[in-house]
Design a protein that fits this description.
ATP-binding, ATP hydrolysis activity, globular, six-stranded mixed beta sheet, four-stranded antiparallel beta sheet, ATP binding, alpha/beta, binds adenosine-5'-triphosphate, P-loop_NTPase, 10 strands
């Protein structure tokens, strides 16, 4: 199904990177990335463990210092103070208050964005925690805990949602519910950047960014991935692209870093 909104071709990208490099403790982590995340769509950020997904997300939300290149988010440099209310960010390690209830956590984050108690209840329900709204966060399971964190990112109704592995540890039914919610948010105009290890989730995205060892292997659609990777199975297709990249490296050919497809 084509989820491309009619305005997508004419609107500027929500996120644009040009020759972006990041070092941590002088160690190069992201290498000369060039890509564009379209507005009002769901973009999946996929890559093996350690490929740099979280580092890239931290760069986008403005908590990671850039070394070289540029990173523009909603038309402003990443990290600009004015972006604070426009971005919802869910980290891998849930950052919520353990001594507050589920609802109070979400109300607190909602209040920072001027949202009402009703908005907080709605966000709690959206992540399937309505029955546990009064439970203290410290008494939740790991999966429930991370869902509170997701509700905190959703409650501000931000223009851009950056979600670092939001479906890890969730049962399949809730996983499907959440992807439907992400789709509805994008249909309403929000931009979502969602990282995942699970290639099956890539089918739910409009656009995919494939990272490996800090380099952008490709930016394409799920169909483009199947075609370029030579398999209808997305996992196999990703492996096909990695193999082709390794062969290119072994042959001493230049390594592509910039992708502006999809
Ligand atoms: N604070 C740090 N100090 C040193 N190296 C770091 C630091 N943070 C990240 N790295 C390194 O940067 C690389 C990318 O890490 P990152 O967490 O961005 O990957 P990831 O794709 O999100 O991995 P995962 O899927 O396992 O969460 C890894 O090699 C990691 O060891």
């Amino acid at each position: 199904m084509d989820h491309t909104p009619a305005h997508a071709a004419t609107t500027p990208p929500a996120i644009e990177a040009d020759s972006l490099s990041v070092r941590i403790h002088r160690k190069p982590i992201l290498h000369d990335l060039g890509f564009a995340v379209p507005q009002g769509r769901v973009t999946g950020l996929l890559g093996p463990s350690g490929s740099g997904k979280s580092t890239l997300m931290r760069s986008i939300v403005g908590v990671q210092r850039l070394w070289k290149g540029s990173l523009t988010v909603l038309g402003r440099p990443a990290g600009a103070a004015s972006l604070r209310h426009a971005i919802g960010y869910m980290t891998q390690e849930a950052s919520i208050y353990r001594d507050l209830s589920v609802l109070d956590n979400v109300r607190y984050f909602g209040a920072l964005h001027g949202r009402s108690a009703a908005d907080a209840r709605e966000a709690v329900a959206a992540v399937g925690l309505a029955d546990l709204a009064r439970r203290k966060a410290s008494d939740l399971s790991g999966g429930q805990f991370s869902r509170v964190s997701l509700a905190c990112a959703l409650v501000g109704d931000p223009e851009l949602l950056v979600l670092d592995e939001p479906t890890v540890g969730l049962d399949p039914v809730l996983r499907v519910d959440l992807w439907e919610r992400f789709r509805a948010l994008a249909d309403g105009g929000a931009t979502l950047l969602v990282s995942s290890h699970v290639m099956e989730e890539a089918t739910r995205c409009d656009s995919l960014l494939l990272l490996r060892e800090g380099r952008m292997l490709a930016q394409l659609t799920p169909d483009g991935l199947r075609e370029r990777g030579g398999s209808s199975d997305l996992e196999q297709a990703f492996l096909g692209i990695i193999r082709a990249d390794l062969e290119r490296q072994a042959a001493g050919l230049p390594v592509p870093t910039k992708e502006h497809a999809a």
